[in-house]
Amino acid sequence: MSRRLARQVAFQTLFQIDLANSDVETALEQRLDDAALDVDNQEYVKEVVRGVMQKLPALDAQISAVSKGWQVHRLGFVDRNILRLAIYEIVFMDEIPVRVAVNEAVELAKEFGDEESPKFINGLLGTVVRDGGFA
């Protein structure tokens, strides 16, 4: 359960950075101070958030490529950041099984998105997986 919480903290940090144009390290510090995570899960959050921000142009290009004409900036903040997180895990974190990354993204969409988010997230990630990562 703690990895699920860590994934949620990572998503919330990415959301904060995106919505409020927050500094990455400040947002990480704020979110990690509020979360009860062990050291391993804190490191996961830092790795994922920093990794997503480092690979942001490539991740956003991938999202745009699979979202059938929707530019990434037109997506809602929730869906956009769940997709960024999940695609980062799928493409760059070999230790996380693809099925886990997709399932956890859908769970985040159920909790934080609107009623269409889970289906949208699942469909786009299915395309990413089927196409083998980056286009």
Question: What do these coordinates show?
Answer:
The structure is a single chain. By secondary structure, the chain is mostly helical. It has one domain: N-utilizing Substance Protein B Homolog, Chain A (Orthogonal Bundle), CATH 1.10.940.10. The protein is 76% helix and 0% strand. The protein is built from seven helices and no strands. The chain has helices spanning 2-20, 24-34, 39-54, 56-66, 77-92, 98-112, 117-131. Helix 1 runs parallel beside helix 3 (39-54). It is globular, with a radius of gyration of 14 Å. The mean pLDDT is 92.
* Rg, Å, rounded: 14 Å
CATH level 4 superfamily: NusB-like
**CATH class call:** Mainly Alpha
Number of domains: 1
Calculate the terminal CA-CA distance, rounded to whole Å: 32 Å
- Mind describing the biggest β-sheet? none
Percent strand equals: under 5%
Q: Look up the CATH topology.
A: N-utilizing Substance Protein B Homolog, Chain A
CATH-derived architecture: Orthogonal Bundle
Mean pLDDT, to the nearest integer, reads 92
Number of helices: 7
Provide the structure class.
mainly alpha
